Records
---
Amino acid sequence: MEDNKIRVRFAPSPTGYLHIGGARTALFNWLYARHYKGTFVLRIEDTDQVRSTEKAVNVILEGMKWLGLDWDEGPGKGGEYGPYYQMKRLHIYQEYTEKLLKDEKAYCCYCTREELANSREKQVRENKSLKYDKHCLNLSEEEKKRYETEGRKPVIRLKIPAKKIVFNDLLRGEVTFDGELLSDFVIMKSGGIPTYNYAVVIDDALMKITDVMRGDDHISNTPKQIVIYEALGLDVPKFAHIPMIMGQDHSRLSKRHGATSVMEYKKVGYMPEAVVNYIAHLGWSPGDEREIFTKEELIKEFSLDKISKHAAVFSMEKLNWFNSEYLKNMSIDSLTKTLLPFLKEANYIENEESLSPAKIEYIKEVLKLMQGRIKNFSQFIDYADYFFMDKINIESQAFDSVLNKEGVVGILQALKKKLSTLKCWNEESIENAVREVASSLQIKGGQIIHPTRVALSGKKVGPGLFELMVVLSQNKTVKRLKEAIEKIEDAKKISN
RNA sequence: GGCGCAAUCGAAUAGUGGUUAAUUCAGCUGGCUCUCAAUCAGCAAACGGGGGUUCAAUUCCCCCUUGCGCCA
């Protein structure tokens, strides 16, 4: 029973951040492992010494944790098949390489960059597929020695058998490649560093990975990896190549399509559950109409046969929709808790810990007005700024088109007078007061409401005016009406 | 250049050898309303092209096209 347990892995290169595509691959593997009660391994592929950094490892781990994708073996966790960093496994690759050399399944190649380029150029000219010319396949010991004394450092190449290489993709069925067209590719670079395809095979085999689920950009790498498995006499795992995620223009998802880093979404104020829910739908569907899924439901429903085969396009609008759905359904308490760091960041509050109960209550009231109007917390910071600023910033377009108009000063003055003496500050009495002012001036409600909204918030759009006033308080309402009146009069003076 | 993978409304996906080809996001119209959002009602919108197989193809097969990827 133990032997049948599914083992999958996510193996990122720590060369940047955890991007959306990587996160989706991680998610699918995680869901697959959790669904079948298998093991989810995290392995760091850090053999690109130039681009790999410790910081990038941490950023990726952080991203995984934020999304709630916990791993059973890997960095910080250990496990019986470690180490889980490729650079700590160099001796293992070396060991297998010596075996391949001894078995004459691989050979040293001393060709220089120039020699390879020349050969390649010739192949291009002859319209042939690009392939190593096997110049070093049968070097004698003397020739090898001569190259070494010249100071050449060899790379190790694998001999590719000239036969069909077939594998059964769990998603796509039988995929066939012609080994004849494959080059004797490099498995070990001259510095003793394994190439991607080589390290990945040894690691997957030694870590007893049963199912390799990865982006379909790896389909063409698979035959090479199978050749390595066979040369090493290792069991070939099952493969499932999932579709890639593209930008709106159907090119590879990149920064110009918007945020591609998962942590960027945290920063802008998305809920990890919403991001997970959305990316789960990129290339996968439950087979019916449901859209909103908890992680537990995703685990329950996830299966390979519901993964589509064609590339998916990332849509910010749809993500926004998912996120606002989550925000709408959150309790005010947890919403408040999540919002606090953003308020701090925007300097709307001093300190998250030392907030007075009254202030927390105030934040909750503001949140109630904004919940359902925002797609993320950055938008809250933007839309609700006037609740947290002493001097508000009146948008110039709103000022010109709504406030700086004939008759507005008189309206605001009348309203100010009425509100400043209002005894009872609740939605109902405020509405009554506003309507009374309107009817005494013989104008429609809207003619008083719109300028007042701009005077109080600096914006033309926002929550219902009366509830806004209740939260803002009588003092501030009156004060801002006064300030708006002054501002309009100043503008009139200047233009005259 | 060689090889591989893919192809349903603008996007994500359902679905089927015979259907009015469905749902969600986005878009548009209208209701509600002080604006926006939310919400409700409605509209518009797709089987890439060509050959087969078949009584019947969006669905199965082949070719083309397009997109994406791998190889340097």
---
Amino acid sequence: MIPHIMSRTPPHPTREQIELPLVLDCLSDPIRLAIVYQLAQQERVSSELCCGDFNGLAGKSNLTYHFAKLRDCGLMQTRVAGTNRFMRLRREDLEARFPGLLDAVLQSAAKDADRLQLVAECDVVEAK
Amino acid sequence: MIPHIMSRTPPHPTREQIELPLVLDCLSDPIRLAIVYQLAQQERVSSELCCGDFNGLAGKSNLTYHFAKLRDCGLMQTRVAGTNRFMRLRREDLEARFPGLLDAVLQSAAKDADRLQLVAECDVVEAK
DNA sequence: TCGATAGTTCAATAAACATTGAACATAGGA
DNA sequence: TCCTATGTTCAATGTTTATTGAACTATCGA
């Protein structure tokens, strides 16, 4: 039987392969910034979210596209479990490569949460 | 006599108009990141550099394009003096809007200076 | 006043990007 | 075993992007 593509974990860059321009470019898109922000908010509750939790941000296939970019640049990790894909922030790797960067971006985003139309923390938790 | 366009200072966004996605997008381009980095290195010597100081990074008209993007997003300020345009980083405004962000990016860039082909500090100073 | 220097503007081009919907693959439950 | 939920793949579309060179404008100094 031929191995099934979809059940395999997609490729991720190693920590050392994470590149600053790619990370910044990823974070510069409002939808991807919202994904990363929501992931960060959720971290206190659980470190993972699945694709469906972001349905409010864009259409399904568009989200797949943005997830791939976030994965390719090293910001997110995807874990496959059954029919779900669980995402988490690669906090430690980011912190090791670019100390303070992710937090500076997240705090900047939090400051402009209204302007950027980001979900408030309570929204995320309640939506569970 | 009709006022001469080129002698006027180009428009800049106010501090409040500076937007996070635009700033990140600006910094995600390797040439623009190099410009900002060089400007930051130079700050200890003088807070300003003129277009010609960046000739190593790209062609003249391409530089004009990147300078415009940096100015439009609020990262740089341009001052016109004779036939020169002097650039400086809008450090205070950036710090007020997004505390810690610029420094986190600059430190990250410094860590990857080789990979990003950024000018070493001594190169900048010696090139004067 | 002329020439050189500094930088801008404009049009053209090729590549990358975000977005959509339709078709598909996979896993789990009735 | 079939139905449903979850998510991916693919092709098509229109937009934005970076880069180039040629023509231009403005300023300074000889």
